[in-house]
Amino acid sequence: MSKTINLVKLSVGTETVKNLADWQVSPMTQTRDGLPRHITRMWPKRGEELLNGGSIYWVIKGVILCRQRVLRLDEVTGADGIRRCAIVSDPQLVPVAATPKRAFQGWRYLQTTDAPPDLSQARPHDDALPPELQAALANIGIL
Question: How far apart are CA 74 and CA 68, in angstroms?
Answer without folding.
Answer: 16
